[in-house]
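Its record is quoted verbatim for completeness.
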Amino acid sequence: MTAPASPIDAPETIEVESTTVPCDGGGGALGHPRVYLTMGANDFVECGYCDRKYVLKPGSPRGGH
């Protein structure tokens, strides 16, 4: 009898105060190239490399850094 497959951990969610955020995977050599992500009309953006989700903090101004 085999053990059931363990569920995959949910990607990390990080609250930010800007609609443009840098992401490098946070793992040093285990990370990925630094990319800059822009939320556009949404209040969140997900990294295409590591699936981190960046969420705009409530009350934060839209736009700029």
About this structure: The two ends are 54 Å apart (CA to CA). The chain has a mean pLDDT of 85. The CA atoms of residues 3 and 9 lie 17 Å apart.
